[in-house]
Amino acid sequence: MIPPVVLNAAEGMSILDMCAAPGSKTCQLLEVVGGLKSNTDENVTDLEPKGYIVANDADPKRAYMLVNQLRRMNSPSVFVTSCDGQYFPILDDKSEKGTVNEGMFDRVLCDVPCSGDGTMRKNPGIWKRWNQLGALALHPLQLSIALRGARLTNVGGYLVYSTCSLNPIENESVVAELLRIGNGALVLEDPRHRMSGLLARQGWSSWKVLRESQNRTRKAIKDYRKKHNAKMEEKRKEYEEMRANGEEPPQEEPMMKKGDKGDDEEEPGKFIPSPFDTIPYVPPATWDEAALSERTESLGFVEYKTYNDVEDDWKRRVRASCFPPTEEEAAKFELHKSLRCLPQDMDTGGFYVALLKKVAPLGKDATERMKALARESRGGVEVDAHMKVDKKSEDTDTTKPADTKPEAEKKVEEDEPIRKAPKGKIGMHHKNSTDLGKEDFIPVDPTIWPDIYDKFGLASTFPKEQFMRRAIGEAKTLYFISKSIKENLIDCGIQDRVTVINSGLKGFEKCSLQGTTGYRLTQEAIHYIVPHMTKRIVVADMDDFCACVDSGFIQFDNFSEGFRKEMEALSQGSFIVTLKGFEKDIAKKMFLVMWRRANCVNCFVTKVEMDAIKSKMRALGYVAKEVEEKPVANGGDSAEGDKMDTSS
Fold first, then answer.
1. 447 found inside a domain
2. Which pTM was predicted?
């Protein structure tokens, strides 16, 4: 997709995806940031990716959907949270406001909620629901999220603002206001030079600011169509004929109430059809400025030339930031550097993408504007909050949580109120998912490690401090958390500020299979555990490794003699089979979590991953041997007999 490519992420970077669900863009970024390098030497101290992604979504249910999308990536370098993007926490341990150290992330992606009119090709229903009032209502939310994203971006880092809308009220007007508030801290850059083949038009520097009039609302249109459908028109014609013949029609005409005015009288909320609403459509003779304005008005829109023309009762919707920049601002902002991707240009959906570089910390005015917009979104600020900051309301904001935190956290909460996501119910699809929840990750009880170390022969290089559990119930699952996420997010207290959905990979699970107690290995994080293991590892050649990749009970006689003896020498329980030549190559992940039983073994790998491993083996040139047919019942062993048996 276009926005992640414009973001230009690189290995080792920290990235925030502020509105991540359903997860396609996050997966695209994770391929760059969370990739693994082949490691064939003996150095096991630097195996995991240094970069990471925080994937956030305001809706917990959409965040759960995001986790399922990311599962196929099998990477520990993602931290899934649920928090309103306007309140995503700015950790003081990572960001020093107003200095060159301001920010937490190298890259921030703000793919904000929008009206979605750019998706009209794949979703024609947009035409039925779209109206200009929706774009005007989304504008302050989009600006608030983008401002927070700018504050979270490191100085020298990049912010991408994107929508799947083509409306300038949701696009250029938001970017122009960002640049205006940034006052030189943000600079718009043109990414076209590194995106050959992309057909993207220039951003606009001028546009019309419109709103629907009251007689063009959905309710007015619905009522008009209900009263003027074919059945009602026929009924009215019948009543007119009755009056012409001196007969008295029914007391009330259909769909008309006492006190209703005639169709030719204007009143607030009454739909007035446009002369352009004709079938077939008749275009005007010319499309000059006058004709466009006439058509706009006839279709029920009100056009504003400047913000001063906006009526007082509409200033909460039609804001000063919706209007195009002045000529001086337009020359400074260079909005033409942003990308307008129209559906017909490349047979795609419609996108708007802007790449902004943060060259300096944001000023105090930007921070105050960010807080004012966030407060306004929850009804705490008057109409003119977008033009000034009410210091009194800021000082007496009663929506902040009670001060019950330790002194160490008070400084954070003075400026940034905690806005965790609501505790919405988990969907039916996720009820049995043990790795999804809203509980924090906490350290593991150190008393469990001696048994695990002894059982699997873990070396001193094993990063036990990176294995954590969820803070509820018994520690049934131990998750491998990447070092960068633990040090930069968890240890800095992000879990106190957001709702945690998921992170890391399952490394160990508690079990009592066949009387075995303790923890067993799991396939998800096995490539981060095997390099540190010295016990319960069996190396297999291609044939034996292929024989292990099977479901159900696998008998010992399916394997070669040497490999079978190694497995028989193991005690019952969890062990690892690794492909010869790939013992240290965690990027290929040619490892299998197996379970040793009395007379057979099991492969504890999902069918999806089994298929992936078989594909990798085929890519390495391996062709599985066909299973030999057993002799027929009559004992015939001639070539002719085999031929006849095969042909049947």
1. no
2. 0.79
